[in-house]
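Hi! If you just cloned this repository, the fastest way to understand the data is to look at a raw example. We've pasted two of them here, unedited. The first protein comes first, obviously.
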Amino acid sequence: MGFRKMYRNYLKNNLFMKLLLLFSLITVITIISFSYFMYHSMSQAAINRELDIQKKAMTNVNNYLGGKYDSAQSIVFGLYRDSSLAAGISFMLQHPFQEYVQHGLEQYNLGGNSTWNAGLQYFKNRVEDDEDIRSLMLYSVDQMTLYVLDRNRQLKIVPTNAAHSYIPEVMALDSKSVTLPNIWVREAAGQWDNHLYSIRTPINDKQTLKNIGQQVVYFSSDGIWKILLNDKEELKGTILVLSPDGGVLFDSSDQYYGKPYPFMDQVSSLYENSGSNQSGYVTKLTQSKGDFIVVGIIPKNELEASSRRIGSTIFMISSICIFFAILIPSLVVMNVSKRTNQIIRFTRKVKQGDLNARIPDEREDELGQISRSFNEMIEELNQYIDRVYKAEIKQKHTELTALQARVNPHFLYNTLEVIRMRAISHGAHDVGEMIYSLSALFRSLVQQKKIYTLKDELEACRLYLELFQIRYKDKFTYSIEWDRKLASTRIMKMSLQPVIENYIVHGLRSECTDNELHIRVKQTEEFLHVQVEDNGNGITPERLSELESFLQAEETEGESFGLRSINQRLKLLYGSRCGLKLSSEPGKGTVVDIWLPMDDGKEGYDV
């Protein structure tokens, strides 16, 4: 009941309140919809931006580790490029270290190449050149000995007899991938730092291509942070570098070092690039060169924090927009409603007979103009009543009396019929025909029809022409060519007959016997094209130009009914594409083209 009462009091007869409510509803729905789509778009853009930042960082890590892999390989390749170094290292790996030292001294004393003894120095220099190298180890397959170089350029020789160590078995496995350091090699090298990864490269004898040992380089994974410094502030989530077996080579969160990665099965099942699960977004990059995997993980709660900030901002802005979008139109509508009610109140006063009421609104907008027009109308109404109204009443009484005194049309029809029959009885058949045509023409002109068709207008033209054919007898002929299918087409009354009359008055040559008039009607697309052609006097170019200007001018009050009236009525009723067009040559005749609309007999009333 409360809602119905509120509707009756505030909405039922209150147009402005309905408009305000409708506008507010549309505004709120529009702003909410726009805010939702903006939130969705901006949230997705924020997620994509975070993923792009992480992927860029992962690409840098991937390229960095690939570079370290190439750097480790280049140590051995650089050794092969120097034959003396290669020979010295080959000798060291195939003989006891004491023999290598003794052989080097003998070569030096004999004046041999000094680079024979520079093999270890070569490796020491490479360790110094790369600050991320923590240890560089050379393993001798024949001697089962591990040579360890640390950051202090100290050489440590560790025997690795198979009876006391698993290092020979470990080194026998062919692996060029980037992996975690083997626990037995760690123990031999004394390297227990969890932030290490190793790259192993086989060493072959340059002459026989026989594998004589292995190069193992331990890199510090902390060096990866150097390439992440630029993105560290914006980087979200965790970046991991994993070996194929799940070993953690690098962990930006520092929580998985020293233990296998627990979600390796999920990582292995992912394709390249991004994916998502219930907990977050996962991005995966693989490196074929070192056979390691770079994984980026961003938990959804971190991304949702950014989305919540975006949502709060959009909600605040949307609320402000809705508030002002409703407040400002409400104030405007209330003001317009107040002024409109004022106009209604004063119009009711006038309705009740108070012709002295005036609306006090001096503004220049539409309502102000309505108020001024209303006041001016009341002023003119008062003047009209005082000066004209009484005289108009007398004039109307006079006209009514005159109308009552007019001859009844039926009396005229009957009288013409009596005259026609009297003429026929006296043998004046031509006079009878003229009277019959005149009576039928008069009946057609004064008869009020709801729908006036092409057939009616052509019949009026025929009756009119029959009168003049009887008058001029053998001097004048006419023809009407038209498709009977167009008979029911509605046209404007008196749209053709004045053209025929114009020819009879101005174009007919009474002294000649070959006067002809042809009326042709056809349908051209959506128009009805009527052409009236005669062989009369024709029109001079100067007069034709005057007539064309005359046709386009406005019709003046009291002017006789003719071509200009037809042209103006057609253009006003049907548009500029309809109307009359004249063409003529002096002495040859005139052609009048009339363009009417095709309405296919639609319901309507004749104008």
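Ok, and the second one:
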Amino acid sequence: MPWVFGLSQDADDEVPVRTRLWCTVVMIPAAAFCCLMQCAFAAQRYMDEPQNGMYVWMIVSTLLAFVFPFLLVARSRYPELVFWLCCAVVLVFPYDPMLLLMALTALLARRSSTKRTVRVVGVATVIAVGAHLRDALNTPESSLWHMIFAKPHTGRNGVPLEMLTGETPVVVTAVCVALIEVAIATLIGLHIRSRANLQTVKARADAATSHAATLQSDLNNQQLADAIAAEAHDTLAHSLSLLALNASALQAEAGKLEPSAQTQPLVRQCEDIRRQAAGALDEAHAIIDMLRHPQRAWEQLIPSDETALTRDSLDALVGDARNAGMRLNTWIDIQQLSALDEGIGKIAYRAIQEGLTNARRHAPDAPVSLEVTANPTHGVHVHVSNPAPPTATAKTGATDSTTRATSSSASQTTPAQSPVIQDSARPTRIITPHDGSHSHNGLAGLTARIASAHGACRYGLDERLVFHLDVRLPWIASARR
């Protein structure tokens, strides 16, 4: 439990009350005015005796009446300390208890302990009553209460003060007013505390409601992910398993052939097919597992040696493409890859992989050009291009002019492909349906990932019917440096 100047402050006892600037601006002048007013009346009896020590005391009290109200500025951080200091000020100096009552309200609003509430209200009541009695029991010329009960036009301009009533009503009224002031200050403080507690409870209820809605959304998303994972396991994984099995059988049959110059390339291609099918099956199972266990998905999405943009992974990717029969021309200029952020490197690797896969799927016999540059000055640039297959060219020529003008499909085999490179910054694309092609799904997903990294992705056919995929990513230094 922390201690501040000997006063205990329990964190569980604190109430989150917002201190408003306009309240402080009003409270300080009001407290100073009340202190000055009662101090001015108390000093009347000593005005004719400048050599008296009480005269000096009243001068000091008058000057300090401008200073003590600024204690209220600290009422937010140290409400109990401010209260006890104000109690001491009102006891020692001939001030009105308004300063004390403001400190009482601030303390009751910010602390919820019942024992503390009873204690400070009792102390404030005694001091407030004492401050008013101190004024009421003064000589009539030095008492604000006597001035209130005096006859009009008396007590000033040399006219003697004449009372409308005796001393007892004056004293009783002063005591009653002190009790009423303490009650009002207490009620205001309790009201502010209750309102703050209500806002806290409402905020907690809103947070609980929002959390429940988030949990429900997560549950619905997880149920959808489980359904997708089950469907992928029943269809995609099954098909890839059959592909891997058939590739193994084909490799075994090719191994039975007599070794020759014609059979050796066939055996190697069968081995590549079997290995790639097995790798695709493993990747499918990994994605299915990510759908079923999203809490482990982020761990699997962290860039690894196989998916990061490194010289080894790039060599392996290019080598696999050429081993699969792709006629691939490369222009690669990469520098300081160790200083590149892993997330940017993985997106660049996926861009190269998607470009080669897209070319292999839709233009299997066409030559492919790959350009990769990466350096801190110009960032990361990936460009993949290949001529469109003859089927796409024929279909494009057979498309009517209206369709050609409105289409912006991402697929190389889209019949209505517009002969311009499409920019990922455009808000929408018009995709013309075609039979059996889903290539735009991969490019659309790649575009979204690149946009999330503040990069740019453009793809499409140019006027020579050459398909281009152009990716630019910013150079972000690795945090491990």
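That's it. A detail worth noticing about the second one: The beta strands are 3-4, 7-8, 328-334, 368-375, 379-387, 421-423, 456-461, 466-473.
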